[in-house]
Specification:
Radius of gyration: 20 Å
Number of domains: 1
Shape: globular
Number of strands: 0
Distance between the termini: 38 Å
Largest sheet: none
Structural class: mainly alpha
Order of helices and strands: HHHHHHHHHHHHH
C-alpha cells in the first residue's frame, strides 16, 4: 500500500475510534445512573478472575510468537528474549498508529539475530492465524442483521478469514522463500502453524470466558455467544488501520451484541469494564517483561 494511502487509512481508523468512543460516552451520559449502577455490581473478585483468565490467554500468545519466529527463521533463537519483547510490547499497542507493538517485537527479535525477512513473515503469519481463529470463533454471531448497519464488510470477512490459515501455510512454503525465508518441506511447518492456530483459539475462548465472568448471571447468554461477540469485536479493532488497541470500536461491537439480552446499560458497563481488564492485563504483562524478565549477564540459549 502506498505511503499516502497508508496515512489516509490510518487517519480514517483513528477517526472511527474517536467517533465510536464519543458515541459510547454520549450513551453513558444519556443513560446516567443506570450505567453506574451496573458498574457497581461487578465485584472485585469477578474482576480479578477475569483478569487472570485474560492474562493466561495473553501469555499463551507470547509462546505462540516464539513458535512463529522459530518457524519462519528455521532456527532456534532464544525463547526468553522473544517472550520478553512480546510482553513489553503490549503497552505500545495503545499508541496512535497501532504499529509500535509490532515494531518493538521486531527490534527485540533482531537483537537475537533473526533476519528481517523472517520477522516480517512471522508477523504476517501471526496476523493471518489470529484473524483466522477470531473468525472461527465469531462465526456463530456474525449473521446477526444488526452487524450489517455497523460494519457491513464483517460478515463476508468472517466467512472468508478462516481460509487465511491455509493460505499462510501455503505462502510460507511457496512464496516466502523468494524473499529470503529458509525453504522447508510443505508438511514440516504444518504442526507449528496448527499449534499456533490452536493457541489462538484458546486465547479467544479464555478472553470470552473473562468477559462472561464479569456478568453476575453468566448463563443468560450461551458461552459460544460470549466468545463470538468478543472475537468479532477484537477482529474489527484489529483490522481497522490506526485504531490503537481497537479503542472504542471493540466496545461498540460488544455493546451492540450484548444489549438485546442484557440491556443497553449493562452491555455498556461490561464493555467498559472489560476494556479496563485488558488495559490492566497489558500493564501487568509489560511490567513482568521489564522488571521480572530482565536480561542478565550470562543468559544462555533456551
Amino acid at each position: 500500500m502506498p505511503g499516502a494511502l497508508k496515512r489516509i487509512a490510518s487517519i480514517g481508523g483513528t477517526v472511527l475510534c474517536v467517533v465510536a468512543a464519543a458515541l459510547l460516552i454520549a450513551r453513558c451520559i444519556a443513560l446516567g445512573g443506570s450505567v453506574a449502577e451496573q458498574l457497581s455490581r461487578i465485584s472485585v473478585a469477578r474482576f480479578a478472575v477475569a483478569l487472570l483468565l485474560y492474562l493466561v490467554g495473553s501469555v499463551l500468545l507470547g509462546f505462540a510468537w516464539i513458535v512463529l519466529v522459530r518457524t519462519a527463521a528455521a532456527g532456534l533463537p532464544r525463547a526468553l528474549p522473544l517472550l520478553r519483547g512480546h510482553l513489553r510490547a503490549q503497552v505500545a499497542k495503545y499508541l496512535p498508529g497501532n504499529v509500535f507493538h509490532f515494531a518493538y517485537r521486531h527490534v527485540a527479535a533482531r537483537r537475537e539475530g533473526v533476519a528481517h525477512a523472517s520477522l516480517v513473515a512471522a508477523l504476517a503469519l501471526e496476523a493471518a492465524l489470529l484473524m483466522a481463529a477470531a473468525a472461527i470463533v465469531a462465526l456463530g454471531v456474525v449473521s446477526d442483521p444488526r452487524i450489517e448497519s455497523v460494519v457491513p464488510w464483517a460478515r463476508q470477512f468472517v466467512w472468508l478469514a478462516p481460509a487465511l490459515a491455509l493460505l499462510a501455510w501455503l505462502a510460507l512454503s511457496f512464496v516466502a522463500p523468494r524473499f529470503g525465508i529458509p525453504r522447508a518441506p510443505l508438511m514440516q511447518r504444518a504442526p507449528q502453524l496448527a499449534l499456533v492456530l490452536a493457541i489462538n483459539l484458546v486465547f479467544f475462548l479464555l478472553a470470552g470466558a473473562a468477559l462472561r465472568e464479569l456478568h453476575t448471571q453468566a448463563d443468560t447468554i450461551p458461552f459460544g455467544a460470549w466468545c463470538g461477540w468478543l472475537a468479532l469485536a477484537w477482529l474489527v479493532g484489529y483490522v481497522t488501520p490506526g485504531a490503537p488497541a481497537g479503542l472504542g470500536l471493540r466496545e461498540a461491537i460488544l455493546a451492540l451484541g450484548l444489549s438485546p439480552v442484557l440491556g443497553e446499560s449493562e452491555a455498556l458497563a461490561l464493555a467498559l469494564v472489560y476494556r479496563l481488564v485488558t488495559v490492566v492485563a497489558d500493564g501487568v504483562l509489560a511490567a513482568v517483561g521489564f522488571f521480572l524478565l530482565r536480561e542478565k549477564t550470562g543468559d544462555i540459549a533456551s
